[in-house]
């Protein structure tokens, strides 16, 4: 089952952060995109206040939409962010074990 989250595109150019744009994702999930979109109007003022406090007034919200986790990661990668290690599939151990005895 795909879960959807409210995602916020923030511009942090005033904080001299590179890349200066990034998508933040809420921790509250919704079963459908329709439910997620319906929750945005009620959450908007809280989102703006949270971003204002978190960025000390230097962050600008450019967009608010609903995304699943894969869409969120792809959107951030397209902006130049690196996928977190915990999101990558496990890499098999390619080092051969040697008998040390």
Topology:
Elements: E1 4-11, E2 21-30, H1 33-54, E3 60-67, H2 69-78
Antiparallel strand pairs: 1-2, 1-3
What's this, in brief?
By secondary structure, the protein is α+β, with helices and mostly antiparallel strands. The protein has 2 helices and 3 strands. The protein has one domain (4-83).
Number of self-contained structural domains: 1
Report low-confidence residues grouped into runs of 5 or more.
94-101
Share in helix: 25-40%
Radius of gyration from the CA trace? 18 Å
**Rough shape?**
flat
Adjacency order of strands in the biggest sheet: 2-1-3
Mean pLDDT: 88
Measured between the Cα atoms of the first and last residue, the distance is 49 Å
Please give the number of β-strands.
3
Order of helices and strands: EEHEH
Instruction: Estimate what percentage of residues fall within beta strands.
Output: 25-35%
Q: Structural class of the helices, strands and pairings?
A: alpha+beta
Provide key terms for this protein.
disordered C terminus; flat; alpha+beta
């Amino acid at each position: 089952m795909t879960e959807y989250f409210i995602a916020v595109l923030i511009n942090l150019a005033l904080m001299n952060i590179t890349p200066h744009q990034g998508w933040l994702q809420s921790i509250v999930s919704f079963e459908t995109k329709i439910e997620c979109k319906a929750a945005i109007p009620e959450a908007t003022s809280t989102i703006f206040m949270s971003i204002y406090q978190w960025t000390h007034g230097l962050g600008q919200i450019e967009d608010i939409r609903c995304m699943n986790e894969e869409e969120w990661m792809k959107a951030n990668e397209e902006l130049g962010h690196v996928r977190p290690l915990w999101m990558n599939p496990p890499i098999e151990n390619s080092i051969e074990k040697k008998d040390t005895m």
